[in-house]
Write a structure and sequence with these properties.
alpha+beta, 29% helix, five-stranded antiparallel sheet, 79 residues
């Protein structure tokens, strides 16, 4: 089964890490950083400085913290 934004556990982890849900199940923002869930099982990372930073899989349940670490490292590497 593909993991998409319809599974709320990664969104819950993002909110707990300080991300604001701008559009339910679709877009999260923190400062100049944006995470967008596309229509498949991927998330896209954007910033105001760099248009598209990365395209990552939505994590499986139980792997939210590892995914958050990858998101943070991706944003750090792009800045």
């Amino acid at each position: 089964m593909p993991y998409t934004a319809a599974q709320p556990w990664f969104g819950e982890a993002l909110r707990a890490a300080g991300w604001e849900e701008v559009m339910p199940f679709v877009e999260f923002r923190r400062g100049h950083q944006t995470i967008i869930f596309d229509t498949s099982s991927r998330i896209e990372l954007y910033s105001d400085k760099n248009s598209r930073i990365a395209d990552l899989p939505v994590p499986e349940r139980g792997h939210e913290q590892e995914a958050l670490l990858v998101v943070e490292q991706s944003f750090a590497a792009a800045s």
